[in-house]
Design goal:
363 residues; alpha/beta; eight-stranded parallel barrel; binds alpha-D-galactopyranose; TIM Barrel
Length: 363
Amino acid sequence: MNKLMWKRFQLALVIICFSVGCKSLSQNKADDKGLAAYYKNYFPIGVAVNIKTLSGDESQLLLKEFNSITPENAMKMESIHPREDFYFWRDADSMVNYAQNHHLKVRGHNLCWHEQVPNWLFKDQKGNEVTKEVLLQRLKDHITTVVQRYKGKIYAWDVLNEVIGDTDEEFIRNSPWYKICGEEYIAKAFEYAHAADPEALLFYNDYNTERPIKRDKIYRLLKKLIDQKIPIHGIGLQAHWSVFEPSEKDLRDAIELYSSLGLQIHFTELDMSIYPWEKNKRQKLAGENDQLTPALERKQIEQYAKVFKIFREYKNITSVTFWNVSDRYTWLDYYPVPGRKNYPLLFDQNLQRKKAYAEIIKF
Ligand code: GLA
């Protein structure tokens, strides 16, 4: 090799090393960037947490990828108010402290629901059903105590969960709340929450909110509340979806209908089941497959890409929260078919980003 060739060879080597170095540096940088950072110009991205999520590798993933949390169970009435004269604050407090320490937002979930309620709630000491006056007073005490405790630390509350009936004929669900109080408890819950923290954003939260018949019933309820000047600021669309639904049309129609009421929209419990939606618990069938097959994975990627593209288009979508961190633990492994594995989230069982992740950050 003559001198000139040697010089050229050295130069080429320097250029190659430099570009390889830059590439791996930029790859590392991209890996450092979490989902919430990709979406910083759109909306906060949250995740439902339990106590385990707040330490170890799940906590590391949470802090890298998300900037908002929702307690999965710790603030539900059964957990936080197990006896009439006793509140169990420990877990809920830990979550709120964790959020404060790491500058995460907190969505409170939830103040009034017909499930996961404590035994004492609807009965008096003799075991008889309480009157409407007693139940409304209990609701007021509960909401006031919980909301005041976290005033200024919880920016949004799911005040009412799942009030609309599932069958096409049923408007308000025939729950003990409704049987004892009639519709009145709905407006009251919002009023109590607003009085306890006038700054907090108050949401109505439900599932199957994109299915046209249920959507129209929810709209009817929200419109009624707004017309009565009840303090309500948004609707929470749970988004317990699947690779089969919602369709683009149903999702857009729902967003646009709720938006016409001037409400904020939060997607509060997002996951993308690989099975069609079912409500009733049942046993796993013999031979029922529970693998994330390549075909289902493809469908899931497309479904995630589709809904996030839609989310980015509407300015009044102000939060998106996933229901659990990764496929390592999801409530869908227990419900509706206990023991049937599901893979509904963006991170796999080893907490690695799934292919759908790459699709939703392509914009
Ligand atoms: C509903 C509730 C949530 C949670 C899920 C299942 O969507 O709103 O709190 O219980 O069911 O995990």
